[in-house]
Every structure is written in C-alpha cells, then in structure tokens.
Amino acid sequence: MKNNIFNPLYREDYIEGYSNGSNPHLKLVEEKSEAYNFGFEQGRADYERMNGKIAYGIPQLIVTNKVLEDFLLAGMLGMDIDSDGYNSFQIDVIQKWYQSGVEKYDPSQSSYLHSILEENGIELA
User: Fold this and answer.
1) Under the phi-then-psi rule, with left for phi > 0, alpha for psi from -120 to 50, and beta for the rest, what region is 84?
2) Which superkingdom (predicted)?
3) Minimal CA–CA distance to 91: which of 100, 102, 82, 104?
C-alpha cells in the first residue's frame, strides 16, 4: 500500500495525517500507518511553510491556504489589508501573496466586481 493515494484506505489515513500535521498543537504518533505518517509530515511542512517553525512558537493567528487566497484577492481588488495578529514570518508570506494580487490589479475590473457584490448585499470593508 506504499504511497498509493488511489487506494481509499491509504488516502483516508494520509488525509487524517495531513490534517493533524497542519495542527501545530498535535504531535506525530509513531504507531500510525505509513500513509498517516507521510500525510502528517506533509501537513506539518505546509504549516511551517506558511507560519514558521513550531519550535519558534505557535503564532496568535494561523495562516492557511484560504487566508493566503483572501490576501491575494484583496491585492487584486486594490483593498488595504489588516496584518494585526500575524508575526513577521507570516507577514512576509502574506505580503508575497498580496503583492501577487496587486500585480494583477485592474481598476476597471475591481469597480465592476464591487458593484456586483454591492448589488448582492455584500459589503467590502
């Protein structure tokens, strides 16, 4: 069953491990399956890529792919961002995503999107 992500049992163990690895408060349990352990390592690597090494402490706010996508969208819409509660490592990561959005910023598209959102009762801060 080694690295067979198409096997439902492997995939289930991998996803559970990945999810637990993404949680900085959990530690790897060695008695788990190979798939779980591999998923845990991958989840932990992704967590530390966005939030810094756990050995340096757990930040007040956790950066996830969803958080980064929100900052990318904010950059694309030309919106200001609020980085309160994030540490300097996280701000560096967030800034890269936001800057990528700013580079894609199109004022005419942003105005069009703002009007559509307002028509649907969605207000942007």
Assistant:
1) beta
2) Bacteria
3) 82
Q: How far apart are CA 25 and CA 57, in angstroms?
A: 10
Mapped to the 3 state alphabet, what secondary structure does the chain carry?
Answer: CCCCCCCHHHHHHHHHHHHHHCCCCCCCCCCCCHHHHHHHHHHHHHHHHHHCCHHHCCCCCCCCHHHHHHHHHHHHCCCCCCCCCCCHHHHHHHHHHHHHHHHCCCHHHHHHHHHHHHHCCCCCC
Contact between residue 19 and residue 64 where contact means Cβ atoms under 8 Å apart: no
User: CB neighbours of 86 closer than 8 A, spacing ≥ 6?
Assistant: 59, 60, 61, 63, 94
Domain ranges, ordered by start, for the chain: 8-53, 65-119
Backbone angles phi, psi at 33, to 5 degrees: -70, 165
User: Averaged over 70-88, what is the pLDDT?
Assistant: 90
Compare 72 and 124 and report the one with higher pLDDT: 72
The pLDDT, as a whole number, for residue 110 is 63
